[in-house]
Amino acid sequence: MARRINALATWLHQLEPDEVAAILVHRRDVADRYIRTLKDLATQLTDSDSVHAAEDTLDQGAIDVLGAIVAMGNSGTIDLVCTELHCSVGDFERAFGQLKERALAWPDGARLIAVNSVRATGAAGGQLTLRPKTPRVRKASAVSPVVAAMSTVDGVARLLAHCEQDSFDARYTGGVATVEIRRVARALRVADSVLRLWLELAVEAQLIGIERHRLLPTKHGDDWLDSHPGTRLAALVNAWRRMDWRPEPDQARAALRDYTGAAGLALRRTALERFSADVAFADTGELVDDLVWERPAVHDPRATAAVISEMESLGLVAGGALTPLGVAVREGGDIEAAASGLMPPAAGKAAFQTDMTAVVNGLPSPELSATLNLAADLEDNDAARVWRLSAGSVRRALDTGLTAEELLAKLAAVSEAPLPQVIEYQVQDVARRHGQLTVTDVASCLRAEDQSLLQEIARSKRLASLKLRLLAPTVLASARPMAETLAALRRAGYAPTGVDTGDQSIVEQVERLRAPARGERRPDRWWRTELDDLELTQLAIRLVEQERPTVGRGTPRASAARMLRDQNVFLRDEEVLILATALVAGHQVEIKYASGPRQLETHVITPAKHLEGVLTAECEDGSTREFAIGHVRKVVVPV
Hints:
Helices cover 45% and strands 14% of the residues. The chain is α+β, with helices and mostly antiparallel strands. The chain is elongated, with a radius of gyration of 39 Å.
């Protein structure tokens, strides 16, 4: 490690201030106001976490060159690398320039050296991957994203309704299993990937929470349903910006799982930044190929294509270009204002047709959706939403306790015109047959041969909580289970005996269940603020000017001290000055020299020459010996 740091520091000394500034710009995580020397900078540049982060910003061509340099054991040359990768010198120089800008590799004479801890994963062996064809663009045209955005907003609303009315279970270990995703997707008649997006958006926006391993709407979800369509869309867009999971269309993955890292955030952000409001991509497939080549550590073909589909479904991108809402997201503008301008007001009326359908142009209001979902089934969910009335759907509405007249009044209240007669006939016909056959829910039964005793019990006010009703002259039905019925009869002074448990299912009107939201994920802020471009440039100039010898400036001892300091990480500053003084003046010094593992030799020497990290000196016995500067552990003035 020490040798590599010294080699990097030596190379940094050869650079101009603008070149050091370029390195600091590309490696902002190592830039610090407290870096004092170029050697300090070299030490920071070799940190493994920083190196890996810098690797993730390389394009595929630069990764290929880096992989070849590492494979050659840092002994390759430009000609050898070009031969290995079958590429021209121009293509190599472009890729190698990225490595030098990030201090991941540099030239050391004819050799090419890579920094420590570099991984070079994903490099294509034996070839240099050239950039694909530039994506074709055209002038952006006015393509409305309203249809896709409304479909997503309405889909999330349908998901909330399903979670309230039907079960949607979460796993005990966290997340929602793919089997459950597929089951609910079939019920809502959407693709698994679409439902997963709806679910992730709803949870991230705190519209759905988990309560006792079941997904349920939150109180915030109720407020979301009652808000303007634009406000609803803005909440989903803000949730999309915070999602950190990475789409994997080829792999079945559970939803709502928390993953470490921010791969999904980087994927969505970099994909959105490539779009523009002025020009449109003629083929997003070409854009996907270009993104995968440009940032292979972040993008892969299927995940990037899935993210672009997400942006289209939220109205951020339409026709290959950014919409006003997409511009607001990318530029940090007013997202809610842009979403409100995009989404039309919610429709409060429906057009009822003679074919037993109800058509809603646009996004239906919560009241309209509730009425149509009560008496009809959603058949089409596109720009115009279509509900179809049938005997089964009308019967479902009458099961809630409505009469035919009340149901027709509800439908007429949301109709743009008088209801067609065919719908009135259908409702009245179903109402005539509704209730001809009844089913009684009984929790327990009381039986006795004495009919007068049962009549007395049925009239008792002390037993009113049992809701007793006469089914036959010798049979009373109780609304309470057998244990509760027996206890109530005994408290009233009777002596019943349990005979038959009967059907113990009870239908109760309970309070609507609501789950707590998990809360928003907020990005952690690093304690140290990054330097801006001007501060980075000033830092680079200071580092270069204070350490590089210039004509007419500095003493030989100072120049020697600067060079020795960069070639040895073990010596203190005062020891470096002692050695530099001895080198310039020809004085004797005593050194501790590492000749092997845990082996230190003591030598009294007179330095004679210093070249490329090697010190040539005369020893006390009159012999001349070479010492590697990096192996010197201590320097003192001999007594």
